[in-house]
């Protein structure tokens, strides 16, 4: 029986960038659809939540092992938004790409991710969470503030680099009012780096890392906009630093128990790397998303990347205990 891949997705709308900056573009989804079809799969693109739920629940139980849901749903506002598809698939015993709902929910919360990983020795800048717009400053300048549960640099601009009490009063209360929780960190002055991890629990492979260069002092929402793409990757990372990042990346994947793929961002201070954040639902544009670009720099094709991610999803479904309840009840 021929296998079918459902691209469960939100489609980027340039009219509402603040809500959907993290969503994949129509061009990326079409490219993924064609690439996966060329791999020999049937492909269905679904973007309506009710339709996705209806189609998944309507798959005959004897055929569910022949289906794969590629999780591209990012949603907005909810702290559980990147976990919608993994939770639904796990409950219905349908394979999906990427990490479990538990990992997706944790990594979307930057503060809790840092608390967890710091407890195992992963280096991070000093940080705390602000939930009250009236909260007063409790650390030394400079600081960097950002929404705790957003990606794609949403809510980030040059004003997020806090150098004075006046900066704090101008920026932080407004961010809390808009995004509810704000992560505050001691500012790291060095270059930013990114690295990918592919694999399932106990068998991970880190990509090569790269510096992320961008104009100005801040990787802002304007820099990361789908309309601009002004950031660039510099693959000339010193060997010792690259080895450290790969070690940290695989350690982080093991600690989280991630599946399929991760993108992990670091920043330097005095030439030492500190964790910025973990993204369990990275972008898959072959043009500008960092995970595919890191993969291709290693001499592998975009098609091979998508095929590998699908293989990892099927392997996870066969071997991971988190599907067992649904298999027992549904199959």
From TrEMBL:
Gene3D superfamilies: ATP-grasp fold, A domain, ATP-grasp fold, B domain. Residues 114-311 form the ATP-grasp domain. It comes from the Bacteria. Keywords: ATP-binding, Ligase, Nucleotide-binding. GO terms for molecular function: ATP binding; D-alanine-D-alanine ligase activity; metal ion binding. Belongs to the D-alanine--D-alanine ligase family. This is D-alanine--D-alanine ligase.
